[in-house]
Amino acid sequence: MTLARAAALAATLVLGCRRGPDASAIVASGHVEATDVRVATKVAGRLQTLLVQEGDRVRAGQELGRIDTTDIELALAQAKAERDQASADLRLKLAGSRPEDIAEIAAEVGGARVELENAQRDLDRMQGLLDRGSGTTKARDDAQARRDVAAKRLAALEQSQARTQSGFRQEEKDAAHAKLAALTARCAQLEQQLKDAIVLSPLDGVVTSKASEAGELLQVGTPLCVVTDLNDAWLTVFVSDRDLPLLRLGQQAQVVTDDGDKPGSGQRREGKITYIASEAEFTPKNVQTRDERVTLVYRIKVGLPNQDGLFKPGMPAEARFLPQATR
After folding, report:
1. Residues 6+ apart with CB under 8 A from 263
2. Looking at CB atoms within 10 Å, which of 146, 172, 227, 240 has the fewest?
């Protein structure tokens, strides 16, 4: 309720809160209110269709509008391709090296070992010739260099063979798992956005206001319309502090609608008090006397049976309370 509307109600009801034909009855006028739900979009995009008009009755789960999903579908296709690639990479890491790769590196190791053995025999022969005085130091040094190169090559190939046989490290497998999980979650997120692009009514009610039109570009949280739950209606009235002690939560009240220019002469319903404010509203800054304190008003809500939709938001009505004595 707006401040201006509340002020008008308070001003009217401070003057209008009165005793009924039964001197003990408390009569107060007010306006009907109901639960309003602003139905908003959870995804950004252009509003493709809006299927309701003001005054339409809707059911919970009924489609109210639809957001264009072209961008979401393109993003989902890309995410699925990246997920498939991550899945293939994970399977590759879990499978390890191919038998052909293992056989190839084993052959290279075998060849390198033969080369080392030959290089070692050449070195031994060159050293023997040098010891007998028929060889040269250079020939022995060249043979020793070939032997050292062959030994280092064999060591490098043996390390490569060990890596090939053991496959990928556990950390690499864990990273592949994590990447696949992240992309799977991204796909699920986009698929959920596709579902959220269809805006559904969260409750049974009546469309009381349209907030957007088809073709508009909407941001997340932009409302499409307002759905009012007429089954959850109440009458808001104000009473003075003199009458407040005579009212209780759950107390019955007779609510009467206005009939044309005759307030309180329309249809009647039985309601009950569902809320009593604990603090006064529009309290003057300085309250000196009891006559001035009568300007203190307290908000009262009277719950209304409204299965037939008689009461509508903003409708004026009158509540009649039979006071209960204070204890």
Report:
1. 29, 316, 318
2. 172
